[in-house]
């Protein structure tokens, strides 16, 4: 970021007012601090303005992202935010986005939208320019303002409605080429987040509404994060909850298993009441919720097909995680059964559903991967007030398939077999996708192959939140006094404070500011008339990594160099101050 | 603009395809060439995408604007484009903008708009942060994407619907302070446009819908420009047509003027038919259109008042220029009379209107500044088929006022009395305004003055078209072969072409590219397999200022250095090639 030599930023004229109190609408630390420290201001719900200090952080992040994208060979372009409807109609996303995009009409009544992501337009663009396999691969990117009409914009910059992303798109003729483009991005993202000083994990992810196959998310570890993920300390495995694959236990022998028996269980429509009944009624058996088979009824509709009633059987000690269920059936839709559905299917007895009832009603019966052949279950007998005991999978019922829909819990075995999972929270800061040919199919993006025949192109899509990153870093790098910026993104290298009214000290501070500036450091110069106490508090709130105080020590020939992160303060002789400060900044 | 040492831009992989033919929708040279040369692509009407070369020019212009804004002491911030309705409701512009803004609603039904300019939000922002006269003056700016729903987007980037502007706003407590902030901008704009190599004029302007007083436009001289301006070669005077002030001739004696006589003139509803009648009917008189007084009827409505019928009397050899009329009455609205209006006012006889009829109908009668006391006119007698001859201004009728509404013509005397005006066309590239207290009044932006009493702030608003400038420069700097970029904004310093298949030449060119890059030059390296002819054509179309050819001369130990602007080509020994090229680039 270019500074102008000779134009030192003085707090006496800087457009900055710090606030003593937290803003009323702020819940998370980064939001509170960025507003209190005068980095950002709210303009509308989920829409923020960048004030001078905030903009400097934002631009430094942008520059780092740009450098690393250029280094991997990606080419920067810039597409508009105001987009026509047609390409999104072609891909089907005009409808799919629902209320999540801002839609508008121009004065001629043409439908337009504010772009939330640009797969369609990049696909169209490449189709317009390129025609031969020799033109590929190509990776294009932009750093651009995006819009999403979030239902609940929250946490300041963490979930906004207008925000800046780096989005890039790779175009290859082969799957191996796509793998390579994907790997280039993965490595570039690691370099970017490392340079930004962010603590993050890479988690396996499902692809969400974007379609496609391989996909990973970069999550900044953060208590206030909206995304829950799991990881295994022993093995380093980490995944989005939606992407966790349940380890399948071995099948059990069931030759000596007793035959299933239907019992009158009375009013036992819940797992708790069923377990209580079993422990009382089944002599000598100790029954737990995990011994029961909970059957949850939903209906699932594949694109262009009818709704199919589906029973999902999971161990009774778990709930169905609807997000995992949705991710498993995508692109099909899933809904809970309505009263009308039950009325239309008398074979389905609410509270007493069993595998057979579902299949008898013409439905599909899917089970959790733990429900392997030979496992024995207490479950519904498809009659009010009745359950069946010792129903053996693979003997007494045959599921139509397996589905990942049960909740994932801390302590569950890691899918890689090397330990157990723990859960944690994070903020999505990057997402890399192998889209495959979804968009190339929609737009018929072909190039002529080496043999003269058309080859369908395969694509990747890679997002990185640039404006969000300002808040993510603030979230990870602050203390109770204020922000603590890493050097790479701090608005200024040095915060120079005059804390001595003596004429010589003031003149000396001025000279120091000029010399630091001339040495190429970015200096924020607190030349205000305020008291030292007010200035020190502001310096802590604003969070520059190095604070230099021209204070009481001036008379004895020293200035104080403070490290914002460690709190360490060192008296440095004025004579060697420039060199000492440069050393502190350059580390 | 940062280049990455070691990452040389190669045309073999650059996302660039030049086109042989002009795009069908392009009319002006800059539009044709920027599309043909692969700098931009159209995404929707008036909405463009920047490809790699175009983006580089755009960023260089942005950087120059930023440098000069910082140098004048302005502070950069960044506001959103997606804006709430309320502030624009407060200023009255939510309604005033009419169809010219993009409006939308969010998922909760809140009205929002895409910002066309940000006076309201900057005013609010300063009100939120500042409270004392000691805080001022301050100048804030942003370089930001703006939206206008133009009725006829045209000429590529010259009149787009999504575009980037630098807009700045000054806040002062005194008029003298505002003058100073205005002068700072005027000087900065001159530096910016000089650095960009643009030929421009500064013209006096009316303030348009922005309100306020002093205002000047920076127009790039350009045949395809939409703005007509006038200038006086002798004096250097230049003005927007709307801002031209008609020199007032001296009053004439009328003691010996004959009394007015009403004549039956038959079917003479137009000036032409009236002049023909007069030359035939008035013995010995030679009558010209300029001897007749044309009365045009409009109605004018001041904000919050009723429509007032208004007659405008101008010499019959001129038309009313509606834009000048609108500018004169602003902020009042003006419309032509409807049939209903005539029906309701029988004193107004179409084709035969005279000054008295207008006033008899209760209307206001305003005249062109040339209609001074003592001038004699042939004009309508307010009866069908009748005109009056020798009607003397100030004797036979007394106008209610003077108005600038007549068209300005080449050959008119310059307002400064030093010659005559000529007309020319230009593209608006900058506009500086003294807004005064219009927005401060709307938002009650006060600061506490030195005496403890509130002082209303006075503001300036300053716009500069950043994305438009790419097209303006292309429009002024091209020839029949392609673009001819000035060095300050060219995408690359040097276009290095391999035009020799010899292995040694190819290797030599590669080494030359690396050495030029290492020397800090930005190199576009044409390493494609295409023929020399194709490459030379592309080099001319793309328009880098210096083209270096590794061609036939290689065997004799020379490369060719071509100047794109002059066409001059020089054979340079390979040994000193780097130094010679650097000298050519650095000028």
From TrEMBL, chains A, B:
Q: Which UniProt keywords apply?
A: Aminoacyl-tRNA synthetase, ATP-binding, Cytoplasm, Ligase, Nucleotide-binding, Protein biosynthesis
> Transport: is it a keyword of this entry?
no
Subcellular location, record wording: Cytoplasm
The record's section on PROSITE patterns has: AA_TRNA_LIGASE_II
Q: Which Pfam families match?
A: HGTP_anticodon (PF03129), tRNA-synt_2b (PF00587), tRNA_edit (PF04073)
The GO cellular component terms are: cytosol
Cited Gene3D superfamilies: Anticodon-binding domain, Bira Bifunctional Protein, Domain 2, YbaK/aminoacyl-tRNA synthetase-associated domain
The record lists the catalysed reaction(s) as: tRNA(Pro) + L-proline + ATP = L-prolyl-tRNA(Pro) + AMP + diphosphate
The kind of enzyme this is, by top-level EC class, is: ligase
Origin superkingdom:
Bacteria
The residue ranges of the Aminoacyl-transfer RNA synthetases class-II family profile domain are: 41-486
Primary localisation category: cytoplasm
Name the Gene Ontology molecular function terms of this record.
aminoacyl-tRNA deacylase activity; ATP binding; proline-tRNA ligase activity
Gene Ontology terms: biological process? prolyl-tRNA aminoacylation
Give the E.C. number(s).
Answer: 6.1.1.15
* Assembly notes: Homodimer.
Entry's family note? Belongs to the class-II aminoacyl-tRNA synthetase family. ProS type 1 subfamily.
Q: Main role?
A: Catalyzes the attachment of proline to tRNA(Pro) in a two-step reaction: proline is first activated by ATP to form Pro-AMP and then transferred to the acceptor end of tRNA(Pro). As ProRS can inadvertently accommodate and process non-cognate amino acids such as alanine and cysteine, to avoid such errors it has two additional distinct editing activities against alanine. One activity is designated as 'pretransfer' editing and involves the tRNA(Pro)-independent hydrolysis of activated Ala-AMP.
Q: What is known of its domains?
A: Consists of three domains: the N-terminal catalytic domain, the editing domain and the C-terminal anticodon-binding domain.
What protein does this entry describe?
Answer: Proline--tRNA ligase
Q: Which organism is it from?
A: Gordonia hirsuta DSM 44140 = NBRC 16056
Please name the taxonomic classification of the source: Bacteria, Bacillati, Actinomycetota, Actinomycetes, Mycobacteriales
């Amino acid at each position: 970021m270019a500074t102008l030599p000779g134009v030192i930023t003085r707090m006496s004229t800087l457009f900055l007012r710090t606030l003593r109190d937290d803003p009323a609408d702020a819940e998370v630390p980064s939001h509170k601090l960025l507003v209190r420290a005068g980095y950002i201001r709210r303009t509308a719900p989920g829409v923020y303005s960048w004030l001078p200090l905030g903009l400097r952080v934002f631009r430094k992040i942008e520059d780092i992202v740009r450098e690393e994208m250029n280094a991997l060979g990606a080419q920067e372009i810039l597409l508009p935010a105001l987009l026509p409807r047609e390409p999104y109609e072609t891909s089907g996303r005009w409808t799919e986005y629902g209320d999540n995009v801002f839609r508008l009409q121009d004065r001629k009544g043409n439908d337009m939208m504010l772009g939330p992501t640009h797969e369609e337009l990049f696909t169209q663009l490449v189709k317009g320019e390129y025609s031969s396999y020799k033109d590929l691969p190509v990776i294009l990117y932009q750093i651009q303002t995006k819009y999403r009409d979030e239902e609940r914009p929250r946490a300041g910059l963490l979930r906004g409605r207008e925000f800046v992303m780096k989005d890039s798109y790779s175009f290859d003729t082969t799957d191996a080429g796509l793998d390579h483009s994907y790997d280039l991005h993965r490595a570039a993202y690691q370099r970017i987040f490392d340079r930004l000083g962010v603590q993050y994990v890479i988690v396996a992810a499902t692809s969400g509404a974007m379609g496609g196959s391989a996909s990973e998310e970069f999550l900044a570890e953060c208590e206030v994060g909206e995304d829950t993920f799991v990881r295994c300390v022993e093995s380093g495995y980490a995944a989005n909850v939606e992407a966790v694959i349940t380890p399948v236990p071995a099948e059990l022998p069931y030759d000596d298993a007793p035959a299933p028996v239907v019992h009158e269980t009375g009013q036992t429509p819940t797992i708790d009441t069923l377990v209580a009944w079993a422990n009382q009624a089944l002599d000598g058996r100790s029954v737990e919720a995990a011994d029961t088979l909970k059957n949850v009824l939903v209906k699932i509709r594949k694109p262009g097909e009818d709704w199919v009633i589906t029973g999902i059987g999971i161990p009774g000690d778990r709930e169905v995680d609807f997000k995992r269920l949705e991710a498993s059936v995508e692109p099909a839709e899933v809904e809970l059964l309505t009263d009308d559905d039950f009325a239309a299917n008398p074979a389905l007895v609410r509270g007493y559903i069993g595998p057979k009832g579902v299949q008898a009603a013409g439905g599909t019966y899917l089970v959790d991967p733990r429900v392997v052949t030979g496992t024995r279950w207490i479950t519904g007998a498809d009659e009010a007030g009745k359950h069946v005991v010792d129903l053996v999978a693979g003997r007494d019922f045959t599921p139509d398939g397996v589905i990942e829909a049960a909740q994932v819990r801390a302590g569950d075995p890691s899918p890689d077999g090397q330990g157990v999972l723990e859960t944690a929270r994070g903020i999505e800061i990057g997402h890399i996708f192998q889209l495959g040919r979804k968009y190339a199919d929609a737009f018929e993006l072909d190039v002529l192959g080496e043999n003269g025949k058309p080859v369908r192109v395969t694509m990747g899509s890679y997002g990185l939140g640039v404006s969000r990153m300002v808040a993510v870093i603030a979230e990870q790098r602050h203390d109770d006094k204020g922000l603590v910026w890493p050097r790479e993104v701090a608005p200024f290298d040095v915060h120079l404070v005059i804390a001595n009214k003596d004429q010589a000290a003031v003149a000396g501070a001025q000279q120091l500011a000029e010399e630091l500036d001339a040495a190429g450091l970015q200096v924020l110069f607190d030349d205000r008339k305020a008291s030292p106490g007010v200035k020190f508090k502001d310096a802590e709130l604003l969070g520059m990594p190095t604070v230099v105080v021209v204070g009481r020590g001036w008379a004895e020939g020293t200035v104080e160099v403070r490290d914002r992160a460690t709190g360490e303060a060192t008296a440095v002789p004025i004579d060697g101050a420039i060199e000492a400060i440069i050393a502190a900044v350059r580390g």
